[in-house]
From TrEMBL:
Subcellular locations according to the entry: Secreted
Keywords: Secreted, Signal, Transport
UniProt-listed PANTHER family: ODORANT-BINDING PROTEIN 59A, ODORANT-BINDING PROTEIN 59A-RELATED
Keyword Transport: yes
Keyword Nucleotide-binding: no
Domain OBP47-like: 45-183
Signal sequence segment: 1-19
Name assigned to this protein: CSON014967 protein
Protein family per UniProt: Belongs to the PBP/GOBP family.
Example of a GO cellular component annotation carried by this entry: extracellular region
């Protein structure tokens, strides 16, 4: 559902743009690439109903939330409306079953997305308290009593995993996509946003 592109766009609006690392430089996690993440970098199949996403986004837009809070409540809404809850708790099994059904005869995508979901849910569970504390701080300011940010973190983690491991046939090899792939293969955008250097540096992008 590509929440990642939306969150990174918010980050760019908050902090301005940074020079992207060149092909010959190591990635600096404090310097996010200077271009917004293109939603067509990886043409992954949709596994979540567009109508559900649209309805949840419209509901969030009607509230007086900042952009990150909107994504938080949208993620929670999508999970609930997509029936990924069991006994009032999020169910990894229900989500994986839904993904397998949605992808049908696309085993490579099922393996890739399924693996990303497992990796990111595990990370979300292991770092639950850390994630909540991180999102409570500026610039996010999310109160966990109003919206638990862990599902949003997991959704963005899944998007990043898919982008980094995108199959060649589905990959858009333009410079901005390659810059973001290099960055996300090493860096956690949320952990680095509070320490991103605001100075724009020169970089050879050719």
């Amino acid at each position: 559902m590509n929440f990642l592109a939306k969150i990174l766009f918010v980050a760019l609006m908050i902090f301005g743009t940074e020079a992207a690392p060149s092909e010959t430089k190591d990635v600096n996690c404090h310097h996010i690439p200077k271009t917004a993440l293109n939603t067509t970098c990886c043409m992954a199949p949709e596994v979540i109903s567009k109508s559900v996403i649209k309805q949840c986004e419209e509901d969030a837009e009607g509230q007086n939330y900042n952009e990150v809070m909107k994504e938080c409540v949208t993620t929670a809404c999508v999970i609930e409306k997509s029936d990924f809850m069991k006994d009032k708790e999020f169910s990894q099994e229900l989500l994986l079953s839904h993904i397998a059904t949605s992808l049908g005869d696309q085993p490579k995508w099922n393996d890739l997305i399924g693996s990303a979901v497992k990796i990111c849910i595990k990370k979300g569970m292991e770092q639950h308290e850390k994630i909540i504390k991180m999102f409570a701080k500026s610039p996010f300011g999310i109160n966990a009593d109003e919206c638990n940010p862990v599902p949003m973190y997991v959704a963005n983690c899944v998007d990043a995993e898919i982008l980094v491991n995108c199959p060649e046939k589905s990959w858009n090899d333009e410079k901005s996509c390659k810059s973001w792939r290099r960055y996300l293969s090493k860096c956690d955008i949320f952990e680095n946003i509070p320490t991103i250097d605001l100075k724009v540096e020169e970089a050879n992008l050719e």
